[in-house]
């Protein structure tokens, strides 16, 4: 017991009964008061705790909301940068241009407030990086690949030639004196002339015979080889199709061109009916034959793009449909075949229709769309998927563009993960591209020694990055995740010399649909969409086999009606653009058109005037 408690206890013994009761009553009042205060304090503390928890929850929610808003802002800024790049900037993926890019390069050219830079100012850091970017990348990856272009003289040799002799003997006699000059030799000066296509009416007259001394009249039969009782010819229809599917010139513009140049107009509706009838009736078996030839290829490339069809019965106008492009492998030896298929959706069912034509081992080079993996899993190992390294590179390109690398120094650029990844990928392509000229076996051996170590270095670098690291941009994290999730598909080309490292070949092919779609916007009916696929198939396959597209379309229009409804398989092989029959036809047509263009033989070469020629003429 403490001393103060003992003193207090002795003091209580000294109190009287009345004083002790009064002291107890006071103590009880103090205890009741303290209990009330304690209860109020506890209630207040409980309310304060609730307010604190509520405030803490609100603060946490605000922080989460702020974080999400910041991520949304960064995402929108990235998308805005990429959108401005698509609209006003260069769409290439060249690392030199990416390192030298800056936000100022993507200014809207219609923005009146974005004026020119003042003259006389010092160049900023962004422009100084431009001069250093090329050196930085070349020092890391070596000199870029240079495309071989044909010389002007080689291209001029392929054109018809018209020879003219520019000489005026009378003017030379006045200048030098008669019989005082002679032609030593000739200099040649070439220039290219052009003539607009001339449409003309070919009148074919068939005889009406008087038989049996006039007892009866007999009309010799005639039938238009393309469409009976029609003015259509193979050359006219081939020109329409060439302009539509090779030059991507819509039929309504061709109609306006005819009205402007000839005053003779074939309505666009008539052109469309002719094209649909040719594609869906006469040439459909040729198209199916190409589908089967492409399906026979053990290595294929595939891609898809959308197409709007406004007249599909039972669906909303302008609904998106899809065009799938399949081609023989880019590195596969033999005659390339490229086919387009129209599909109502982007589902795996469209892939099954094409890939299910044949049942044997195949490898598809494509992007990372899930439908390809779905079909590959369903095939029990008969179909394998090789993913596109260019798609992985494109994600790093987006990641680099959103951080505007033009403001970085060389040392800072070299430390950026985006730049490191792009340099490694560029090195893979730089080493693999020259191998396209080799055989598959030689290509495989070279890849093992030269390309595989670089690809391994890229994968090791990507695995060193954390896709959840918030210090990386959203686009960079996406690039890391893409490479990690598709590592097996991205490295499949290292194990087979027939597989290309990317799917750029299909992307270049499918661009034909995108270019056409930009001009003619949509197809009116499903038959119109199928017609687009049929003629895009013919045009792309002809181009891939170095055939003249116009002559090949003309050849198909002339020969296809000869195919019977049943049988005729031997003729289908002759209708391919690599057949000897077609090659001979193309040479004959080219020679015929050249003779019409130059208008006959070359004029005789002028000779030096002689005295005896003058005496003889006198």
Report on this structure:
The protein has helices spanning about 5-15, 15-90, 95-100, 125-140, 150-155, 170-175, 235-245, 250-260, 270-280, 285-295, 350-355, 370-380, 390-400, 410-415, 415-430, 440-465, 475-485, 485-490, 505-520, 525-545, 550-560, 570-575, 580-600, 610-615, and strands spanning about 210, 215-220, 300-310, 320-330, 340-345, 360-365, 385. The protein has about 625 residues and is of the alpha/beta class. Among the domains are: about 15-90; about 280-390 and about 505-595, no CATH class. It has a five-stranded mixed beta sheet with strand order 5-4-3-6-7. Strands 1-2 form a two-stranded antiparallel ribbon. β6, α12 and β7 form a beta-alpha-beta unit. α13 (about 390-400) packs antiparallel against α15. The longest helix has about 70 residues, at about 15-90. It starts with a helix and ends with a helix.
Shape: elongated
List low-confidence stretches.
Answer: 102-141
Helicity range of the residues? 55-70%
Strand content: 5-15%
Looking across the biggest beta sheet, what order are the strands in?
5-4-3-6-7
How far from one another are the termini? 164 Å
Structural class: alpha/beta
């Amino acid at each position: 017991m403490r001393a103060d408690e003992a003193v207090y206890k002795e003091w209580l013994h000294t109190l009287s009964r009345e004083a002790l009761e009064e002291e107890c009553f006071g103590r009880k009042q103090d205890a009741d008061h303290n209990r009330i205060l304690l209860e109020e304090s506890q209630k207040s503390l409980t309310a304060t705790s609730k307010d604190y928890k509520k405030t803490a929850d609100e603060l946490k929610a605000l922080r989460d909301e702020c974080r999400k808003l910041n991520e949304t802002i960064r995402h929108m800024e990235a998308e805005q940068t990429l959108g401005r790049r698509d609209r006003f900037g260069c769409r290439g993926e060249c690392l030199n241009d990416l390192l030298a890019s800056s936000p100022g390069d993507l200014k809207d050219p219609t923005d009146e407030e974005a004026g020119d830079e003042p003259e006389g100012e010092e160049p900023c850091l962004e422009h100084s990086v431009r001069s250093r970017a090329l050196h930085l990348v070349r020092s890391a990856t070596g000199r870029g690949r240079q495309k071989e272009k044909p010389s002007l003289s080689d291209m001029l040799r392929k054109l018809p030639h018209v020879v003219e002799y520019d000489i005026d003997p009378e003017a030379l006699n006045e200048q030098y004196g008669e019989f005082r000059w002679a032609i030593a030799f000739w200099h040649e000066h070439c220039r290219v002339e052009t003539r607009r296509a001339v449409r003309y009416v070919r009148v074919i007259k068939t005889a009406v015979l008087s038989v049996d001394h006039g007892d009866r009249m007999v009309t010799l039969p005639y039938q238009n080889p393309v469409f009976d009782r029609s003015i259509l010819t193979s050359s006219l229809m081939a020109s329409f199709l060439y302009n539509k599917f090779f030059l991507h010139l819509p039929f309504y513009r061709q109609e306006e061109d005819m009205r402007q140049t000839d005053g003779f107009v074939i309505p666009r509706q008539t052109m469309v009916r002719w094209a649909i009838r040719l594609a869906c009736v006469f040439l459909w078996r040729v198209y199916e034959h190409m589908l089967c030839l492409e399906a026979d290829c053990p290595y294929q490339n595939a891609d898809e793009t959308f197409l709007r069809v406004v007249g599909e019965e039972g669906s909303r106008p302008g609904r998106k449909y899809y065009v799938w492009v399949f081609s023989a492998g880019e590195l596969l030896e033999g005659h390339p075949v490229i086919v387009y298929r129209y599909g109502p959706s982007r589902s795996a069912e469209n892939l099954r229709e094409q890939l299910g034509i044949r049942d044997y081992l195949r490898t598809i080079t494509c992007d990372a769309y899930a439908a390809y993996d779905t079909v590959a899993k369903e095939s029990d190992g008969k179909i394998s998927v090789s993913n596109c390294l260019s798609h992985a590179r494109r994600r790093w390109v987006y990641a680099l563009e959103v951080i505007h690398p033009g403001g970085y120094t060389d040392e800072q650029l070299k430390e950026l993960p985006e730049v490191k990844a792009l340099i490694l990928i560029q090195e893979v392509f730089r080493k693999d591209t020259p191998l396209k000229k080799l055989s598959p076996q030689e290509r495989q051996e070279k890849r093992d020694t030269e390309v595989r170590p670089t690809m391994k270095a890229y994968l090791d670098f990507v695995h060193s990055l954390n896709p959840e690291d918030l210090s990386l941009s959203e686009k960079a994290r996406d690039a890391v995740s893409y490479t990690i999730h598709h590592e097996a598909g991205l490295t499949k080309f290292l194990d087979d010399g027939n597989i290309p490292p990317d799917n750029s070949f299909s992307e270049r092919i499918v661009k034909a649909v995108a270019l056409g779609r930009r001009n003619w916007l949509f197809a009116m009916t499903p038959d119109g969409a199928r017609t687009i696929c049929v003629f895009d198939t013919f045009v792309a396959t002809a181009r891939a086999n170095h055939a003249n597209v116009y002559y090949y379309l003309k050849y198909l229009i002339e020969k296809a009606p000869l195919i019977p409804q049943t049988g005729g398989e031997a003729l289908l092989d002759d209708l391919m653009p690599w057949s000897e029959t077609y090659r001979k036809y193309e040479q004959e047509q080219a020679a015929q058109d050249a003779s019409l263009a130059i208008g006959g033989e070359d004029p005789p070469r002028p000779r030096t005037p002689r005295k005896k020629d003058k005496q003889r003429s006198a």
